[in-house]
From TrEMBL:
Pfam families: FAN1_HTH, FANC_SAP, VRR_NUC. Belongs to the FAN1 family. InterPro entries: Fan1-like, FAN1-like_WH, FAN1_SAP_bact, tRNA_endonuc-like_dom_sf, VRR_NUC. Residues 443-557 form the VRR-NUC domain. GO terms for molecular function: metal ion binding; nucleic acid binding; phosphodiesterase I activity. It catalyses: Hydrolytically removes 5'-nucleotides successively from the 3'-hydroxy termini of 3'-hydroxy-terminated oligonucleotides. This is phosphodiesterase I. Keywords: Hydrolase, Magnesium, Manganese, Metal-binding, Nuclease. Its EC number is 3.1.4.1. Residues 564-588 are annotated as: Disordered. Its cofactor is Mg(2+); Mn(2+).
Amino acid sequence: MQTLEDPFYYLANFEHVLEWLRARYPDLLSSDELAFIDEFLQVPRSSRALLVRMVMRKGTRFRVGKLNYPEIGPASKAVKPLVEKGWVAADPVLELAQLFSLFTKPELVKAFAGIVDRPNAAKSELFQQVGEQDAGPYRLSQWWPDAGDTVFELTIMEMSERFRLMFFGNLRQTWSEFVLADLGLYRFETVEFSPASRAFQCRGEVDEYLHLYQCREQLEAFRGQAENEPDALEQVLERIPTEASENAWLEARRARLLYQAAYHCERCGELERALELYGLCSHAEARVRRIRVLERLGDPEAALSLAREARLSPCDAAESQHIARILPRLHRKLGLPGLPRHVQAPVERVDLVLPRPVSPMDADTSVGVELAVLEYLNQSESPVWYVENTLINALFGLLCWDIIFAPVPGAFFHRFHSGPADLLRPDFVPRRAGRFEQQLALLDTGAYKNAIREKYAAKFGLQSPFVHWHGLTETLLEQALACLPAAHLRAWFERLLEDIKANRAGMPDLIRFWPAERRYQMIEVKGPGDRLQDNQLRWLAFCAEHDMPVQVCYVQWEEEAGANASPYEEPGQRSSPLKRRLPDGQTP
């Protein structure tokens, strides 16, 4: 693997972030944070490097004997200025679990030789034995006076996490982004942005983000426990803000957190609490969940009232789809007249019987079934490609590349963006509406093909929220441009822009081209026992409505299907017993 020439590359990256923050966020930094930035650059380089190494490692407690970095030298020497500044604490108090995480089992057997009666026992058993005698907490010098090592605790982790958040605008990206970019493993589009471009506009927004993040971490930890104290969940819920945030982006995060908490309550049978939390939540799926909870609580009248409200003003296509299923059931429960059934365009179904893949792993994975169908159908004159959620997104991403990466205020504020920060926000398309209209107009003239080819050549390998380069070869691109009608591309692209988050998923698995005839067919593949998901049903319905050639292929393995297996037949053949509409309940 390629290596970086400067052994202190990580220190240079961290210092770059500090300078960046001081230049762009001076009004959002506290006096202590500004003082840290100034003082950090004054301590010896080896000490600065050691601090950054600790910041970038997991946890906050470290054994000096394990901090071995050739470019830094002896950690026991480099750490002294850090202790003097208060950025690192020497010999901190350790809980028993913290002690066990820092030392190996042989070391712990030696440390507690007078307590452990079964040296060969598992580490968890040793922990139990020691804990029964004395669970602490103590300093290492008290736990094990002859340890021959020293433990240090990083005290600035909270500050460094705040710095990371302010730089990236999220806590999903880590310090490794610098390294991956410097090694060329990640390549990002260069976007011009002003010094005023930044993720947060006031310190309160940073505080709010961090609080929501901590609440989510606590909720995840609670949900991951096998047993919980009765009041533990309520303690978590009490920390989640119940009032909407003035910042739309942070409000979306709060709504998602509330939804997750409410859903957990619902699953645990805490229906009244779940109903309350759903009612405080603006998440797109919250209203449907409220309706279902009302049903479970035995209040179909209230559920029907809310469902009718949702039918009149659905927040998105997914909610409309759910309400269409719920209303007939509520009418039946309440003895009301049935609702007229919405008849949608049928989608062709094909049942295909294939030999089970040779590798058991292939048969058990979702991709295995798709590849089995691909191999069966693929022919030189009609090649088949596995393109689930990649091809249409990629064509859109290439055609609209310059719009997606346009320097819109607030969309970009550092060099590690794989897409604009506002991509999934409600105002993403409205802020660029005129540009999208102008670019999609190329589909009416035929100029779109060269525009896509040029971007493919110029941007190949750059990070993008729509283009996954590993699945887009030049051959596939050319076949797609030759066989996919511009009118179909426009329809797909416009649907993407209606709801990017929901509609860039659920597309059919395979696509089959007939280059000589300049036509195509999309194929959704379902293995034994698999069913169509809601987003897939919506895409199939959309394709059928627009007369786009699409079919659903249900696969059975030969040994399970029996002797009455019939072969796959080409589209257009008149007498196929395998081709029919999807059964009730599976019609999109």
